[in-house]
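User: two proteins, same treatment. go.

Assistant:
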Amino acid sequence: MSYKIYKNSISEKNSKKIFDFVLKSCQFYCPFVFDQKENYKKTWVDKKFVKKMFYFRKNYKERFSAMYDSIKTSNQFQKIIFSCKLDLIAKKFLKTECDNLLIRDIQLRMDFPNDKRNSYGWHQDNAYDEYNLYSKNGAVLWIPLIKTNKKNGTLVVKTGSENSSFKCSKKVKKGTKYTSEQILVKKKYLKKYKSKSINCSKNAALATYCGIFHKSGNNTSDHIRFTIVVRYNNQFSEDFKFYRDLRS
């Protein structure tokens, strides 16, 4: 089993709470675009909201980046995520106990259409932190707040690659004008597995292993794909980094 989908992992009520907090952040960082009195009834897919987000990102890049970065570490965002008890999903998926889990990070992604600059190639999450050597000792919950499909760039995985270790990846340079470093899967390993795009309903948790080869598809729609990503690791396994390093 390369992945599993857990429906309604986040309630509509909590999705609305997250939206309200994102809106509050937008109003703070860009008050001349986001009116305090404006109402967005369809939240994440509201056309007025999406249009303003496009304008905000295009014309006020530094402010948008500041807003984006502040949400990740905010108390309110993390409080909502913890209240959803997503660790119970990680517990079931990894077949372990909640006490064994640590959270590497919690992230709210905002993937705009045709954004190649911020896209990642085929990668493994555990290649970045190296917390667990073995893929099946770490879980990634990918939770879209809107319905996802090929058109808006849903998650694509290489089924079967969940049995790999992070040693399948290497650091590479990406870009010309804006150079960034990524850790991508070596081509010789990609050829071994078939790709699969996974359609996912909103608020469902798509659980995968930390070492599975994956990437986001290209968003060619007219809207933004909002996704929560929560990464869990088993810290009481012998392959966990801090324990593993004691024996090296």
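Protein 2:
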Amino acid sequence: MIRKQENNKILIISHMADCDGMGSVILGIKYFKNIDYILCEASDLECLLKEDFSNYEQIFICDLPFFKETINVIEDNSYLKEHLKHFDHHESSVRDNNHSFVNEVISIDGLTVSATYLFYQYLKSLGDKLNKKFYEEFVEGVRAYDIWDKNGDFELGKKITNVFTLIEPVSFIDYICSLDDSKEFMITKEIDNLILSNEKKMNNYFEKAYEKIVITDYKGYKMAVTINEQYRSLLGNYICNKNKDIDFVLIINFERFSCSLRCEKDGVDVSVIASEFQHDGGGHTKSSGFILDSESIPKIKKYVDLYLDNICKWVWLENLLF
């Protein structure tokens, strides 16, 4: 969890793991100027919202679905219910929209949205400060990449995500906020050069990760299993495109105590599969995840064992050859 709290009147709580979570914070800073923010995971919200936030006039929660336990905390806090606005887009959480403070929106006028997109539309309804090409392009890039819409500005979103992989979240927020918003959205040449030099490192990482994957069956699907801590979406995309027979990828991340599911194929809904591993698991059709806990760990153990068995064979073969 990352906190930047300086006794301002507006608080944004957003997802710490990707650009869609950062996007709402960036837009909030550019619109309101002085805000506090907390970056966290959805699993942190239950405990986090038990804190006293009565010093804030407005609390925005973005790109974070509300689990049942979180909903119960909010229901018991009249101040939160009155001062909280929620902007999220996870298909698996739409069922909770019957609560007045839950705002899960999947699409608007046929366009599949992201949390950054939703928050941007809200801020534009307040005034025209962000009604610029710079923000339109930034929001579209984040939206397209986050929901894997290759008909949108996916390549810009990929570049923005590459910047995020290079620097930690607070530096990423500060960097995007420092760009000249009077022009089109453009990554500075220095950062662009860093992205190009980092691509070779990423591709090498992907190739080594792919060598060690295990392909196994999951309820009739071909599932690739890998244990990795970096580049989850890019890695999942790489594995799926490298082997078209794979239906989806399970990426286990012990550092974040979570698992990510990624797929490229139509007809595979990994949000449903995520909920089979852990009851609060879910997300999007092609991009979902779940936390590691007492429910999910026993279910992934056999896949961890398969992966480790494969690593043993891989190490043995390397020693034999070299």
